[in-house]
TrEMBL record:
Superkingdom: Bacteria
Similarity remark: Belongs to the SusD family.
Protein name (Swiss-Prot/TrEMBL): Starch-binding associating with outer membrane
Domain RagB/SusD span(s) in chain numbering: 330-633
Amino acid sequence: MKNIKLNSRTTYLAMLLSAVFLGGCEDYLEQLPQDSLSEAVYFETPEQFTNAANHFYTRLGFDYGDESSDLSGNISGDPLYGQGNTITPTTDDIWEDNYSYLRAPNQLIEKAAAYTGDPSEIAEPVATAYFFRAWHHFALLKRFGGVPLATQAFSLDSEEEIMKFYGPRNSRYEVIDQIIKDLDMAIADLPSQNELGDDKQGKVTLEAAKSFKARVLLYEATWEKYVGTATDGDGTNSGAGSNKPSGYPSVTEMLAEAKKSAKEVMDSGAFELWDHRDAIGEEHLFYLFNLEDAASNPAGLTKADNKEFIFQTVYDFTLRKINQNLTHAKPVCPSRKLMDMYLCSDGLPVQHSKVFKGYDTMTSEFENRDYRLKSFVNIPLKQYWGWGSNTNGGGAQYGVAFEDSGIDYDYRYVPQLTSPGGARNVGYQGRKFTTEHKLRETREESYNYPQIRLAEVLLIYAEATCELNDGAISDSDLDISINKIRERSGVAPLTNALIAPYPDLNMLGEIRRERAIELNGENFRFDDLKRWNIAIETLNKDVCLTYIEGTEYETAENPKDPGNPIYVADAFPYGLTQTEKSTSTYSGIATTKAGALILDPSGNRNWTIKNYVDPIPTNQIELNPALVQNPGW
């Protein structure tokens, strides 16, 4: 008993003491209760409820992901998740952190029931608590499947209260049921973004709750449709079982509600897609993800000009830096598969487009392509600013030519094809979530991270619509959803007539393609592959990079290192592909032909059905013997 009490207290207090406060803007950041922890809040006044709710935002982080997936040219990590080589851990931060975080929303909800004033005075912080309770439960569900529901704020000083929490796992259906109920409670009392003043920007809104509800419903509807109970276990010997609460919605009902919730956000007028092509050019999307002050982009835009992020982690150079090695590490780099998934300007994939220029030269595959490709992947031999005072020549001097920078540096980007190194940034170098700010050194980046953005809501609407209609979707529904994304990306609209001549293309596959491209690096890919039940076949294929054989790379010299080649064949142990290979369960994704550099061969990748849910950490099973491990672990 003492071990349980010590473990719970230590985990929770460590989380509190390490938290960094945030908000929607600098003023909001400065007003948060940085000197009082939620344990000390007495919940007697509306201000105390608001202060306690403000503390929930400290749980949000910079959650980029997808490294080692089929779309990633970065292969790193130990054990490597994308290879399916996860082992059962002793501890797990996702488990421990989210259960620790759940205590504070539960405490506020319980204290609200005893509040003697007018309930409307505390309605917004209570609604915020319901939102965050749903948020943390969903994080646990995606990772582990069914988990014990935590809807009580047990006392850290009472072993009896703590033991109430240690019980068997709820099924995933019971967890989803609780999440939806909590989100409905949040939706009932959260203000619209349209009603927020400047002092509340960055707080949870009605639109954020509806968007999150749409995300949850689409996720679970497609999981149930394609995966079913394959990962649930019987709840006695393994897993969490598959008990469904009375009145649990059907797949069709969940999809319909996801579509409805997404449409309500789309129609709210509270948000708009980032589109600054006229001011910045074809690379304008790059600046959506590194927007800080006017010095962070050539158009002098600030965070106030970003109307796309619906719910975000807010950072500030003075009050809360991201403090991760982002720009130096370049975490979001593409694989060969993703490079070929980007569409051509005529709206067709590379294998069908008449405007695709092929792979003969180092730059030909970038011509007539999606602006997202040009925004997020460095083009060989093009000049790019570095960052900070002197890294890679130093940060951007907008309006100044590279040759007039005053720094003796060759700003041209040359692909790294001489060593696999740490299997990071080889072949193609990504730019998403990096900065070129002249005043930002490594770990000083302070742009906001999008937890939910409007582009995702448009994608949810399109996917839910297509699923509801057995793979069909009208041009009018496409026009109000993903065609808005394609238009700002310089890609012709998706229409039924466009893909009709190509038997390998279908609407559901094209909508999934758009989702993969648009949300790449934002921590969706593994979850999407699992809920579509294509993770095993997709993730067990070769991960490849640049085409070498028959291209300029075979013989090109490095212009920044005369006399030495850009590509060194002997440095790469897996060599080049020898035959044409499928890359996807969807036939509309281009195959990888012979001559592509292999970064990670299929023999290294071992995904099975057990990888759809992760193992429960062994220390939690020791603390709570009622927990049953997931199947196969």
